[in-house]
Write a structure and sequence with these properties.
This protein is an alpha+beta fold. The chain has three domains: 6-191, no CATH class; 214-305, Immunoglobulin-like; 308-367. The protein has helices at residues 19-34, 70-74, 86-94, 108-121, 151-158, 307-336, 353-367, and strands spanning 6-12, 42-45, 61-67, 81-82, 126-133, 168-169, 173-176, 184-191, 214-219, 229-231, 235-243, 251-258, 264-270, 274-278, 282-290, 298-304. The longest helix has 30 residues, at 307-336. It is elongated, with a radius of gyration of 33 Å.
Length: 368
């Protein structure tokens, strides 16, 4: 007897992943769901044969949702589409929304709990989960703590797959595209038959059309760890904008050195959209957030290197001094001993200055 499969796809849209990562994952997921051979991905964990369990057939249902920041993840509300023509319908569902990295946090556990919430609310005891992400854990961004809007959401997350409220996640089959990368497409079977939702009313969904304030750093330009924007000055000017900025907003700008560096500096309660920092050589993460409002922050990464630039200037000045001295010494020698100018190739370079110095001493005695 055929049992309908419900397949949910969670797509990480935090900026720790790249557009290339997401494009590769979409291609691999298409191949898994339609039963095609893998073209770019390889099985890094689990068995190749396990992938056959995720091939869709007519009658199955497929839904794709994105997760990342708190706002993005709270908005998860799957809308499964029933599959009729596997190839065409899988392509349509996977391409029904744009997969673009936009967020700065990764509320991974909340995302899984939101899928379980939907399943329990719709009498789904078992489903397939496809997770596209580079994070094995939650990443709450600056401060490292979640900012849940209410007790229900907190209980939903903290109760997910706890010892008293189990969620059985079958061993992941993990597909990767680069051996050394954390980014992967992971597929598993999930059993929520023994899982219970918190005893509270679900929070109201976000009101459509209300845009949240968003901070965007305009300079230095956007860059990530490993691909930092290079700066040749110790003075770093940070500028930003804030879309839909609330009245009276105050900003916090922090500059934190990484890769072994210890420099840390934070400027709080700024009312303008600019700040200047004096930093040593090294790599830094710049984060701009709001001090008194809930606003999506922004960050960028820079690589400050003033030493090589200063050395270049020193060499240029030194070369100019040497050339200047050479020209001055040559003219002086010609004035003191005009006959020396007729002997081309003799005493005409900087290394024969000692010989000219001897002649010069004799000439001075005759002259005076």
């Amino acid at each position: 007897m055929y049992a309908q499969n419900n397949v949910f796809v969670l797509v990480d849209v935090s900026k720790s992943v790249t557009q290339t990562d997401l494009n590769n994952a979409k291609q691999a997921l298409t191949e898994v769901l339609t039963g095609l051979p893998l073209s770019r991905a390889f099985v890094a964990q689990g068995s190749q044969s396990d992938l056959a369990n995720f091939k869709l057939v007519a009658g199955d249902k497929l839904a794709v949702v994105k997760f990342g920041s708190l706002q993005t993840t709270l908005a998860i509300n799957p809308a499964p589409s029933q599959i009729q023509n596997v190839d065409a319908d899988v392509s349509q569902v996977l391409n029904s929304s744009v997969w673009t990295p936009t967020d700065h946090q990764t509320y991974l556990t909340l995302a899984k709990a939101k899928i379980a919430e939907y399943a329990k609310s719709n009498n789904i005891a078992n489903y397939k989960l496809c997770l596209i992400s580079d994070n094995l854990n939650d990443d709450y961004g600056q401060g490292g703590k979640p900012n849940y809007p209410d007790d229900y959401t907190r209980n939903l997350v903290e109760g997910y797959n706890s010892s008293t409220n189990p969620v059985i996640e079958g061993g992941y089959t993990r597909l990767k595209f680069e051996a050394g990368s954390f980014f992967a497409l992971s597929v598993s079977s999930v059993d929520v038959s023994k899982y219970n939702l918190p005893p509270a009313t679900s929070p109201l969904p976000p009101v459509p059309g209300e845009a949240n304030p968003v901070i965007a750093i305009t300079s230095p330009p956007e860059a990530k760890k490993g691909k930092e924007h290079e700066i040749k000055s110790e003075m770093v000017n940070v500028n930003w904008s804030c879309r839909n900025s609330p009245k009276g907003i105050k900003y916090t700008v922090s500059v934190s050195q990484y890769d072994g560096g210890k420099f840390r500096e934070t400027k709080k309660d700024l009312t303008t959209n600019t700040a200047t920092f004096k930093v040593p050589d090294g790599k830094f993460r710049i984060t701009v957030s709001a001090s008194n409002f809930s606003v999506s922050p922004d960050y960028t990464c820079i690589d400050v290197s003033t030493g090589s630039y200063g050395w270049f200037i020193f060499l240029a000045v030194l070369a100019a001094v040497v050339v200047g001295y050479y020209c001055w010494d040559k003219k002086r020698a010609e004035k003191i001993n005009p006959s020396a100018a007729t002997f081309k190739g003799k005493g005409d370079d900087l290394f024969s200055a000692g010989n000219r110095g001897t002649t010069s001493s004799s000439s001075h005695s005759d002259y005076f």
